From TrEMBL:
Cofactor(s) annotated in UniProt: [4Fe-4S] cluster
Name by which UniProt lists this protein: 2-hydroxyglutaryl-CoA dehydratase, D-component
Keyword terms of this UniProt record: Iron, Iron-sulfur, Metal-binding
Keyword Metal-binding: yes
Family membership: Belongs to the FldB/FldC dehydratase alpha/beta subunit family.
Species per Swiss-Prot/TrEMBL record: Clostridium liquoris
Top-rank taxon, per record: Bacteria
A Gene Ontology molecular function term of the record: hydro-lyase activity
Length: 385
């Protein structure tokens, strides 16, 4: 862990303790600290997951030493500078830098699971393979149709089969159902939290810790505890934050919004929610073919809802918002295209819109604060008129 990473990680702890001293966050802070101190175990298979996109039920059901790399910390080493052009996906670059800095490609029981959905990820994949990492990649089409495709089903089957083959562990359908139930419980606990008045900064942080834990029952219990401590949501929060993913410890934009008194809004930049498996668990047909068919349908819907991998603009949601803040990380070209579409919808419907194009450094923090302060005043004026 470099000095910049350590500073970012500690800044999250500081914000949580300073801004939310009365919230019972000790469990989640412990999860956060243990996540950064977690190491691979050479005696058992280890899985490192780069980026979102592969259903975590498959990762969890293997019951191995698992570590997600989110790409939310500012880190760039000489290898990164050599491989990637200046204009490239900062999330992929960050995750790549952490992987090559902290993990040994010669470790026999280490598998890297990597969704590939842009040019930067393909460059990273090529280098990792050449460097000797055992990489399981999954090409992902970000422009998905409304109906599930045979290509998606084949890809999901291939991922699951290859995962089991790589770690030499067969997982029974019963085990998948057990994890579906645990993940479903986590989903409903998180929804309950997000429907309370718990500040969005906190709910976004807690949502990311979901991918840091193996004991989902404990996590769900702690989430419900926070939800019970928070009062019910008193009004519909229609301010929309969308665009490039915002992954902790990158807290710049969320911290600014919190400091401006914007505590509750819709955050479409957080990590994906856990999948909802109600349809699967309520089904009476538990034949293995039916099980996988329902899993594919659920996962296809989840990918379509995931802002990290789907650029389907929900015009109705935008039209019903009080304003849109579009977060654009420099180097994420697909999001730049989406920002233009959303801005047009906002202009056509008289909805305040602001584009915040930024990076992981703090150089533009004050400039962003000034722009968002003015934007907040504009929203208040629009609401009053």
């Amino acid at each position: 862990m470099n000095d910049m990473q350590h500073k970012q990680i500690e800044s999250v702890n500081s914000i949580l303790n300073k801004e939310f001293p009365h919230m019972p966050m000790s469990y989640f802070l412990t999860v956060w600290q243990e996540y950064w101190n977690k190491k691979t175990n050479p005696d058992i298979p280890n899985i490192v997951v780069m980026d979102m996109g592969i259903p975590d039920i498959y990762i969890r059901a293997l019951e191995l030493n698992t570590h997600y790399i989110f790409g939310g910390s500012y880190q760039e080493n000489s290898v990164t500078q050599e491989i990637f052009p200046q204009i490239s996906d900062p999330i992929v670059k960050s995750a790549f830098s952490l992987l090559v800095s902290e993990y040994n490609p010669q470790q026999k029981q280490l598998t890297v699971v990597m969704p590939v959905h842009n040019i930067t990820a393909r460059k990273a994949l090529s280098f990792l393979s050449e460097a000797g990492f055992n990489v399981l990649s999954a090409e992902q089409n970000i422009f998905l149709s409304k109906e599930i495709s045979d290509e998606f089903i084949d890809e999901q089957n291939e991922i699951w089969y290859t995962l089991q083959q790589t770690v030499q562990k067969a997982v029974a359908p019963k085990k998948l159902l057990q994890y579906a139930e645990a993940i479903n419980g986590a989903y409903h606990a998180l929804v309950k939290l997000e429907e309370s008045n718990c500040p969005t900064f906190l709910t976004s942080f807690i949502r990311q810790t979901y991918y840091m834990v193996s004991d989902l029952e404990k996590w769900s219990m702690e989430v419900r505890h926070i939800a019970e401590k928070s009062s019910p949501k008193t009004e519909n929060q229609s301010l929309l934050l969308t665009g490039s993913p915002i992954l902790f410890p990158n807290t710049k934009l969320l911290s600014i919004l919190q400091s401006l008194g914007l505590e509750k809004y819709q955050n479409h930049c957080a990590v994906p929610r856990p999948c909802i498996y109600d349809d699967l668990l309520n089904s009476k047909d538990m034949h293995i073919n039916s099980l996988y068919s329902k899993l594919h349908e659920i996962h296809y819907w989840a990918v379509n809802q995931d802002i990290s991998h789907s650029f389907i603009v929900n015009a109705d949601e935008i039209k019903h918002s009080s304003g849109v803040i579009y977060h654009l990380l420099k180097g994420q070209l697909s999001y730049a295209y989406e920002a233009e579409q959303i801005e047009k919808i906002c202009i056509d419907n008289g909805i305040p819109f602001v584009l915040i194009e930024t990076d992981y450094t703090d150089a533009d923090t004050e400039q962003i604060r000034i722009r968002l302060e003015a934007f907040t005043e504009l929203i208040m004026q629009s609401s009053a008129s």
